Amino acid sequence: MSEALEDPFEEHRNLLFAVAYRMLGTAADAEDAVQDAWLRWSAADRSDVADPKAYLVRITSNVALDRLRSARAKRETYVGPWLPEPMLTSPDIAEDVERSESVSMAMLVVLETLSPLERAVFVLKEVFGYPFAEIAGALDRSEASVRQLGTRARKHVEARRPRFEARGAERQAATERFFEAVLGGDVNRLLEVLAPDVALWTDGGGKVKAARRIIHGADKISRWLSAVTGVSYAGVEAADMRMRRVNLNGEPALVVDGPAGPIGTVTVDLNDDGRIQTVYLVANPDKLSSVAEGRRLAM
Asked: How many angstroms separate the CA atoms of 179 and 265, rounded?
């Protein structure tokens, strides 16, 4: 067995990335956090490390927490709505409700509304199941304060998370109806699948043309989607675009490809009636690298 495979860091690298991605919302930031954790791990005196996995999660969580605090300031001046970076996932992940929900676009958007400490506690407790005592040690906080943070974060998330519980075939079918309506440019069909209070988030990051504010209302959104379908975008003519169905962040999604690679991704959330409640369109080229590389998130 090679030395790399024997190294606990390599053994737990996917876990560390999964923690960092949920805390930071972008693959690039998560990878940087994991790299920083590796540098600290390499320089550390490991003679007293009884549990390498716990030690590495602690390092990564703190690095990600520091990065999240600085990232928040940058996101305040972001051009237009900020969305997480989409990542490819395996289709069968949708059958694991907890794992798929924890990286869904909707959940990551909700996590953005938590304070950095609340987000760290929520991710470690609710997603990865670490006990409060371990989280307190990892974040250098008292167990009582961590419990308080966890309770506040959980209540906040529960009040804002999507209510539609269906997964698998039902979700796939509802999402497929939406995609077919969009690709067909049929306003009437779009109105049938969109909830009346549907919201459209378009993240261009100031790099490509996108709505600078969240668009609300089925009529406005159906007409906006119909208007942009079949026209040139991001320097790519409509005839050169290709749509492919994939699984992003644990959910069915569309990737719009140009000759040089992806120019956008579309994911949706459903309401209790199985209609589209939120549409997330990511077109910022800085957030399409993972999809372009075919990188899959190991949950």
From this structure: 12
